[in-house]
């Protein structure tokens, strides 16, 4: 039988079969020897023992694997961002887009709380910036169900991780999409704020022949080790214009004659995006300095 690992806790893997049953499984001992570590998201073969338990006998090849959070075969992320309450931080948004680009995950942006005062104004300002960069942008009011059809289309048949800052509406969204989700685990990663950074608990919830993953968030660990000169490749428009930048190893911040700077001055690159980029270059330089 073949199934998908939807949860892993203390050496047990919870494998969901095509008929919807979930079996509690152990991994075969030989995996350790072969250095195979089954991950949530893996497609696996199992031998069932009775109706509740089984043994994982084979792990199918993965098309991707994230380390922090540990989850395999993720197709895309939905970056959940609230327009107001908490207020939109373009810097945080651009930083998370860059982090997801580093992990090589496709990403859509879900703006939430469109129903609240001033949200529409904020949306009108920022939406064109990101659609112009070819990000899929969803407008959502998770409480009342506005935008749920576009969300359903976005999630269909894919394994999607929900990510975003605290308070933006991820749990509300998950509860709306998968009403049982709250009852099952109580969102280990989300509820205990103090334990949040240390827990690596990931759970996949079946949704319209795909899965939605509830994760404690993406780690900054690998991002902080990034060379500042590589950051430009994670900003779509900066990557595009830096092809015309003649300086090797250019940070596109000070050199006159830099093609990226020229594009910023002529408004072909949006100023807020460039500000986020410059701020992040500084942070990476500081992180690098701390390492030596
Ligand atoms: N008005 C409005 N409120 C929303 C919407 N989505 C979520 N909320 C509210 O925003 C608050 C935070 O939502 P959560 O779903 O807990 O946010 P979260 O992203 O899971 O936050 P953490 O658990 O801290 O990671 C709750 O009071 C929700 O009811 C929305 O679209 N519109
Ligand atoms: Zn340059």
Automatic annotation (TrEMBL):
Pfam hit, one: RsgA_GTPase
CP-type G domain ranges (all copies): 63-221
Binding site for Zn(2+): 245, 250, 252, 258
Chief localization: cytoplasm
Cofactor(s) needed: Zn(2+)
EngC GTPase domain segment(s): 72-219
GO MF annotation terms: GTP binding; GTPase activity; metal ion binding; rRNA binding
Subcellular location: Cytoplasm
CDD domains: S1_YloQ_GTPase, YjeQ_EngC
Record: residues binding GTP: 112-115, 164-172
Documented EC number(s): 3.6.1.-
Keyword Transcription regulation in record: no
InterPro entries: G_CP_dom, NA-bd_OB-fold, P-loop_NTPase, Ribosome_biogen_GTPase_RsgA, RsgA_GTPase_dom, RsgA_N
Record's cofactor remark: Binds 1 zinc ion per subunit.
Biological processes per GO annotation: ribosomal small subunit biogenesis
GO cellular component assignments: cytoplasm
Class of enzymatic activity (EC top level): hydrolase
Record keywords, A-Z: Cytoplasm, GTP-binding, Hydrolase, Metal-binding, Nucleotide-binding, Ribosome biogenesis, RNA-binding, rRNA-binding, Zinc
Subunit structure as annotated in this protein's UniProt entry: Monomer. Associates with 30S ribosomal subunit, binds 16S rRNA.
Protein family: Belongs to the TRAFAC class YlqF/YawG GTPase family. RsgA subfamily.
HAMAP family per the UniProt record, alphabetical: GTPase_RsgA (MF_01820)
Function: One of several proteins that assist in the late maturation steps of the functional core of the 30S ribosomal subunit. Helps release RbfA from mature subunits. May play a role in the assembly of ribosomal proteins into the subunit. Circularly permuted GTPase that catalyzes slow GTP hydrolysis, GTPase activity is stimulated by the 30S ribosomal subunit.
NCBIfam families for this protein: ribosome small subunit-dependent GTPase A
Protein name according to UniProt: Small ribosomal subunit biogenesis GTPase RsgA
Gene that encodes it: rsgA_2
